[in-house]
Each structure stands twice: as structure tokens, then as C-alpha cells.
Amino acid sequence: MGYDLERFVVYRPLQAPCEHAYCDACISSWLIHHHSCPEDRLPLDISTLRPLHRYMRNDLSRLQIRCVNSGQGCDAVCCLETLHTHEDECPFTFISCSYTGTTALCITVSCPVQVERRGLESHLLECEFRSRACPSGCGHTLLSVDQTQHNCVAELRIELELLRAEMLGKVEEVRREMESRLDSQRRHMVQKESLLKSEVEDLKGQVSRVVCDVRLGGRAPAETGAGRSGAREEGATGDAPEPAAIKEPAEQRQANQRTAS
């Protein structure tokens, strides 16, 4: 909501048409169940709220206020405008430990401790969730809380098994990929072979048609020549026509008759 009562001042103020000002979160939650100004009970809707006038916001920004960590010992007093900057750097502010690690059971855990900012460095030096290399030199990173239970030989065996399983997985993956490629190439070759066979059959058909055309074209002229030769032979070897009777000239016939008489 806003600041506590000892540090009371409106937080992100909004002003109603009746000029009463309230915290943004406070008046918004009020108007969920009520539709009037909390001060004078005049009708009020959330859409009619407006930011506070600039001069009023400037006056609020210059107000002096104690740090939120005054109960932990911080005696800083600053203006409201710079309060958040101070609280982000205040040494009395509680912050969470930043250490996160992985246990021996491969479970990721975070340190649940919250310490004041001024004591964070000393806590990090002794935090149970601080990671560091194995002092025996096996190469593993350990949490301080797991150091007493760490066994280098067992850890290396586990790591070896993990590497072996990873290698076998990669080999199997490569094998499946190669089989997939070979199957693809095999299907491609089968399709190519089928296409070539089809083309060969088409070519055979074309060659057969050409051969038939050539044979038919050579036989027709031969038959025509044979017919003409037969006609000539028939004319040469056939029976010659009987010669017509030779007529005797009239003068010769008359001469023959005179001689006979």
C-alpha cells in the first residue's frame, strides 16, 4: 500500500475531483467496494482520478523521512525524492545470499539465508552453499555442505558412466542418421532405375517401329520392279502372232495366168 504510520505520506498520490488526495493503491482498493470519496462521500469513479498537481508533488518530494531500516540501526534521514536510492544502498537492508549450487544428488539448491548488506561478505566466506573445487584434485566442484560426503573415486566412476552413456547415445544417433540417409539413397536409386527402364523400353519400341518402317519401304519398290520384269518376259517368250496372208499383187497374178494359157 503506502508507507507505515510512523513514516506516513501519500505514495504515488492521485487526486479526486473534490481535491482530496490518496495513495494510488489505497484509493483503488477502496473504489472496488465503494463509489464515493472516503473524505466527503461525494460520488467518485476511478476514471476521474488524476495525478496530483506538480507543485504539490514537489512539496512532497522535499519532505524529510527516516530510512525504512531505522529499526535495525540506520539513522539516515533523507528527502522523499532520494529515499529509494538510499534504501537500495543502505547497509542495514536485508538481502538474500547469492550462492546457488548443485548437491551430490544433482539437485539445484539456493542458500535461504538473508543477511544485512553490511554482513554479506562475511557470510559468503562461510556459506554452506558456496561452491569450490575438490581439494583432492578430482576436478569436481563441491558445496561446502557436501565436502565431508565427497568420494573422488565414486564421483569419477559416475562421471565415466555418464560419459559412456552420452557417447553411446551419440553413436546411436549417428547410426540412425546414416541408416536414414542410406534408405533415402536406396529409394532414390530404385526410382532412378525404374525411370531408366521405362526410357529403355520406350527406345526399344521406337527402334522396332523404325525397323518395321524400313522393311516395308524396301519391299514395295522390289515388288513394283518384279511386276514390270514379268511383263517384259511374258512379251518376249509368248507365242508370236501368226503372220497375215501375203496378198499376191494383181499384175503378177495376171502374168501367171497368161503364162499358163
TrEMBL record:
An example Gene Ontology molecular-function term: zinc ion binding
PROSITE patterns registered for this protein in UniProt: ZF_RING_1, ZF_TRAF
Zinc finger (TRAF-type): 85-138
Domain TRAF-type: 85-138
Region (Disordered): 219-261
Key word Zinc-finger present: yes
Keywords associated with the record: Metal-binding, Zinc, Zinc-finger
GO annotation, biological process: regulation of canonical NF-kappaB signal transduction
Biological source species: Salmo trutta
InterPro entries: Znf_C3HC4_RING-type, Znf_RING/FYVE/PHD, Znf_RING_CS, Znf_TRAF
Protein's UniProt name: Ring finger protein 41, like
Low complexity compositional bias, start-end: 237-247
